[in-house]
Amino acid sequence: MFAAFHAGCCAVPVNARAAPVEAGAVLADAGVSAIVHGADHRDHVEAAGMERARAIGIEPGTACNVELDEAIATGPAIPVEPVEPDTLAWLFDTSGTTGASKGAMLTHRNLLAMTVAYLADIRATPP
After folding, report:
1. Which has the closest alpha carbon to 18: 39, 42, 44?
2. Is the per-residue pLDDT at 48 higher than 70?
3. Which of 11, 21, 28, 87 is most exposed by smallest CB count within 10 Å?
4. Which residues contact 116 (CB under 8 A, 6 or more apart)?
5. What was the pLDDT predicted at 112?
6. What CATH number should be reported for the domain whose range is 2-123?
């Protein structure tokens, strides 16, 4: 998630328990260009029918990921992509209790406000 924010992208989380058709509908509606998934969801992503999106599988302990980890750790710093506070950061799909699910848009400003509220309310309360 933080890598997506760092790159100036919008994250579109999908419930791992969603049927491939449902996941495909969420991803198609969002117009995603890349899908990052765990190794155990490879078939699920393929069944979702998202051929036009680049699928990036994350498989812990594989040589590919070890090389990627080393490249990130030793490579040059990647600059943070500047975004405006009202830029879309997360696109969550609603449960669709009153019909088809819809994308609920959260901006960077929304996330900042939630973080500040959490810190002010929860973290500021003495144990």
Report:
1. 44
2. yes
3. 21
4. none
5. 92
6. 3.40.50.980
Tokens of 78: 């990647």
Instruction: Decide: 91 and 103 in contact? Cβ < 8 Å.
Output: yes
Bridge partners, 93 (sequence order): 103
Strands 54-58 and 88-93: unpaired
Q: How many CB atoms lie within 10 A of CB 48?
A: 25
Q: Which two tokens stand for residue 55?
A: 């699928």
DSSP notation for 6-64: HTTPPB----TTS-HHHHHHHHHHHT-SEEEEEGGGHHHHHHTT-TTSEEEEE-TT-HH
Q: Are 5 and 90 in contact (CB under 8 A)?
A: no
**What's the predicted TM-score (pTM) here?**
0.72
Report, in angstroms and rounded to the nearest whole number, the Rg of the chain calculated over CA atoms.
Answer: 17
